[in-house]
Amino acid sequence: MEIADGNVLYWTCLDNQRATTRGVFSSGSHLVTLHFQPHPFFSCVTDAVNGARSRFSAFYPKANYGLQGSQPSDVRAHNRAANGACDEYKQLKVLSMGRQKAVIKARREAKRVLRRDSRSHKQREEESVTSLVQMGGVEAIGMARDSRDTSPILARNEAQLHYLKAIESKQLIFATGEAGCGKTWISAAKAAEALIHKDVDRIIVTRPVLQADEDLGFLPGDIAEKFAPYFRPVYDVLVRRLGASFMQYCLRPEIGKVEIAPFAYMRGRTFENAVVILDEAQNVTAAQMKMFLTRLGENVTVIVNGDITQCDLPRGVCSGLSDALERFEEDEMVGIVRFGKEDCVRSALCQRTLHAYS
């Protein structure tokens, strides 16, 4: 049973009078002996003459041994076996005697083990990806392959097929139409595919921050937390296609492979080697659309999505999406895809709703 890590002390384990040396530690001044008797009791003794002592309560699985502590005087061991389940537990009382410093170190180590083993599998997976990346020389793409949706992106109707072909062949694509036609899902999925295949270096997602005829006031949190609800539709697709661990890695500011930013932050930028998605484009003005489209650089694909029928701009303000569609209608280098009510794939009820409000 391990009580301390490799920099605390060294110890010997005796199980039914059979000694097993488990490790030599740097201090070399304390000997901790664990003695297992037929009844569920064992003692922890150091070679110190000081009378400092501390009592612990421990539980351990029959198939696995390890000390864990949630309080200074409370140690629990709940290490799981390989199959993740242990049915049989034994309660042990541990008497630890030795110098106060050694006892404190043992307590700290016990609490560290508890924190490590009490984390969820997802947390351990994310931290392992982070630690591997920090070591350098590690190819991050593919680490979360087990949780990534790798199914092919297939069109469910003619409009979606036209949309997919436009994304693959054009640098600037406008997609407009009714809700539920798959505009956001397809654009985000194709962006994730391009990043995984290393066709681009990053994904940039932006949208105007306008609320649907409601004012929620000031939102709490930092800038990322304030805008998180607005970007949830695209974020969910990226997490599904990239994998949660790799998505979190890409969102780190120092990595910057995925950037989710409000539309107001686009001025002065230059987009290169990226897939840029402007969602809810019906809520930008003509001047804002011009500002956005003049950000384009080399090797960039810009996808502009929106539904003109659900514009939240003030009355009398022209939508930048409608204005751009008129300006680029005859441009062969620009792809324009228009979805109709019959192209809705969200659900039959959503399609009926679109017909009812038409």
TrEMBL record:
Keyword Transferase recorded: no
Cellular compartments annotated: Cytoplasm
Alphabetic keyword roster: ATP-binding, Cytoplasm, Nucleotide-binding
Matches recorded under PANTHER family: PROTEIN PHOH
Gene3D superfamilies: P-loop containing nucleotide triphosphate hydrolases
Protein's organism: Escherichia coli
Family classification: Belongs to the PhoH family.
Protein name: Protein PhoH
Example of a GO MF term: ATP binding
InterPro entries noted in UniProt: P-loop_NTPase, PhoH, PhoH2-like
GO cellular component: cytosol
GN (gene name): phoH
Domain PhoH-like protein: 153-357
